[in-house]
Write a structure and sequence with these properties.
Elements (H helix, E strand, L loop, with lengths): L1 H19 L7 H23 L2
Length: 52
């Protein structure tokens, strides 16, 4: 799950940069990769809650 947490942190950093810096452009590929990683994180979390 450590890898998932790193990916979640990266997504948060991208969001912070896009919200609070003057100009940052996130590519479609970055967005798609981040969404895919978030979906994986959620699936791992669901499994952990159902089968601890």
């Amino acid at each position: 799950m450590t890898d998932d947490l790193r990916k979640l942190q990266r997504a948060f950093e991208l969001r912070q940069r896009s919200d609070y810096h003057e100009f940052i452009q996130i590519t479609r590929e970055q967005a798609q990769e981040t969404v895919a990683q978030a979906e994986t994180f959620l699936e791992h979390t669901r499994r952990a809650l159902v089968d601890p």
